[in-house]
Amino acid sequence: MKKVLITAFEPFGGEQINPSWEAVSQLHERMLCGFQVVAKELPCAFGDALTTLYAEMEALQPELIIAVGQAGGRADITVERIAININDARIPDNNGNQPIDEPIIPGGPAAYFSTLPIKAIVDGIREAGIPASVSQTAGTYVCNHVMYGLLHRLAQQDNKVRGGFIHLPYLPEQALNHPGAPSMAAHTVMLALEMAITIALRTEQDLRLVGGATH
Amino acid sequence: MKKVLITAFEPFGGEQINPSWEAVSQLHERMLCGFQVVAKELPCAFGDALTTLYAEMEALQPELIIAVGQAGGRADITVERIAININDARIPDNNGNQPIDEPIIPGGPAAYFSTLPIKAIVDGIREAGIPASVSQTAGTYVCNHVMYGLLHRLAQQDNKVRGGFIHLPYLPEQALNHPGAPSMAAHTVMLALEMAITIALRTEQDLRLVGGATH
Amino acid sequence: MKKVLITAFEPFGGEQINPSWEAVSQLHERMLCGFQVVAKELPCAFGDALTTLYAEMEALQPELIIAVGQAGGRADITVERIAININDARIPDNNGNQPIDEPIIPGGPAAYFSTLPIKAIVDGIREAGIPASVSQTAGTYVCNHVMYGLLHRLAQQDNKVRGGFIHLPYLPEQALNHPGAPSMAAHTVMLALEMAITIALRTEQDLRLVGGATH
Amino acid sequence: MKKVLITAFEPFGGEQINPSWEAVSQLHERMLCGFQVVAKELPCAFGDALTTLYAEMEALQPELIIAVGQAGGRADITVERIAININDARIPDNNGNQPIDEPIIPGGPAAYFSTLPIKAIVDGIREAGIPASVSQTAGTYVCNHVMYGLLHRLAQQDNKVRGGFIHLPYLPEQALNHPGAPSMAAHTVMLALEMAITIALRTEQDLRLVGGATH
């Protein structure tokens, strides 16, 4: 059976939960457009996260891979446009490592663009009444690390498997501890991710829609 | 039968919906703690809003009144502490009126404190995993106008009927048109309001909890 | 000689400086419109702040009093509209006291409106190219405490002495420790306060300008 | 004489001024570390901006090039880490063009990292008490366009000339029209840019300092 791999992260930065796993785990074994969704939790650790991801890709041979993570403070679902070849950790990862200005892949290209139809995904989620937008940066922490590592691996495979990254706001229960921070309900997030998978499977050519930022 | 009156507003400021009515209308005729909830939509207009409110209070003789409104841009459920005796409209109301620095009740006191157990309500909603906080200002528009008018009327009646005001974030579908704005799902909001009513009915003495602001 | 009293606060909340004293101290003994400006630093402590303020008022017999404080996180100069009769401390004051939901003046009115021409002050500061706005809440900490205590005292005196409160953003050097927080240069702030004093001295009747908030 | 080229932009997006030119123009012909600073205003237009930049680079043969632009809404000086190979205009440029998802250089690399010592610049500006940070995205508008085009040209030259981009907050007078937006005084900004040039000229190897983002 054809597979879709969707990954999430374990909690980090003092949080008890990670919204990505709360949402992604609900999609495990779901059938979408004839594909079986497989959900996998990654460690929030440089290196280990990619090791786990690559092993899962090897085992499953998925035709689409979407990695999902937490972007505490953002108000909407953000579909990442690009991953950059740098690890620059503001806080230590879950292994206690805090790389600063080190390349993810020494000698690798400076960046990879997502190969998901990011504009179509944003448009589809918004059509469903859920706030979403394109993000121009996935940061420089483990999320960006996984997105870059994923796209690097896919670029080497030279097949048509597509991949990318989606960031989620805090869940409401997390926002309790972050006064003034926006949040989004787990059910809403799950619907958005389900749509993202479906749209990615169905869309050959991305839409030409405004989604840029002046800075 | 004993009644609770919960009011909401019609849309204003170019919005197609108002989150307060979307949530409050779902509570209409609900039974809570032996009280029947009556939901009523108010016009978003200085004067008219209070006329409608007073007529409903007269007809129902409710033992608790909670007015609810939209606070676009806030990220959580905010329970208002105080209403002030001023109309100062940043935008015209739905009748096209835009009073500036006019008293709501000429000769009335400068302000009224909510008579709801605001700390207990905030605490209860947060216990359910929904972000909530005390707000130190209900603004100077129709929401504050209704809160002040409500508390002024209750102060004159000299009975034990309690009242106050709760502000809601945008709904997700509204946030589509306000990039970066936080939102909260209608179902989450409805649960929070249901708790607010229940807690207000059950709590004699408010809790002594931190809920202030340094500015 | 006729006097203007302008007060500021000592640092609080872990800060090394308070923008209010950095700016206000530069105005000490300045002559404005024939009035001598006297600058006074208040302790950031419930009770003590008012004791110091009242003593200074008694000694100087000023004809205008403007209290100034820090509102970390706000981006512009905010002229406060109203002070409310409550102490609700989110953090302990500099004496270690943390009153919760206690009246400032037991039996006092719920609130006092500023007797400064707040719209004219905002307008004048903005004319000079400096961001300013009316604020609908001075919080529930020592700033609001001083503003309420000041206006209560002035209301009892029944003379024409006017008073109010102005909040300032962080200084740039403070914002270093608050990532993403706005700040304003000390020189800009000093100019704004100088204008506030001048405008308050010259303006009998406040301007009728929009300055409200929808929430 | 050895030269430093520092560029700014003309106003765009309905603004009357651009903070970059207000600050950069004050540095014109300044001598710093034995280098003469040349300030140049670029059109805020895709293509034309690079044509003007390249002509100036050709004429001056500068040994350092820093492009500067406006990032309305940001609170501090942001030193950009990376430019990406995409034009995606949220609003039309000053020629009325609005490219969507088009490469800046067809076939060019996905991104270029700044060759400025970005951590050292941020650190030096902060040491002077001015808020500054590393930014992980220069957006997808004319600022990113110029940064990418600049770094692409420098990469082709294969000499040691360094280049990068710095974004500025609104000036206070601009923030008047953007309620709640942070701003920074022109004099503060000019000092920060002067330091950026000096540090870039003096620093061979960038500092190893935390400057990343979790998202």
From TrEMBL, chains A, B, C, D:
It is an enzyme of class 3 (hydrolase). The active site is at 80, 143, 167. It holds the Pfam family Peptidase_C15. It comes from the Bacteria. Its EC number is 3.4.19.3. Its main location: cytoplasm. The keyword Hydrolase applies. GO terms for molecular function: pyroglutamyl-peptidase activity. Belongs to the peptidase C15 family. Removes 5-oxoproline from various penultimate amino acid residues except L-proline. Homotetramer. This is Pyrrolidone-carboxylate peptidase.
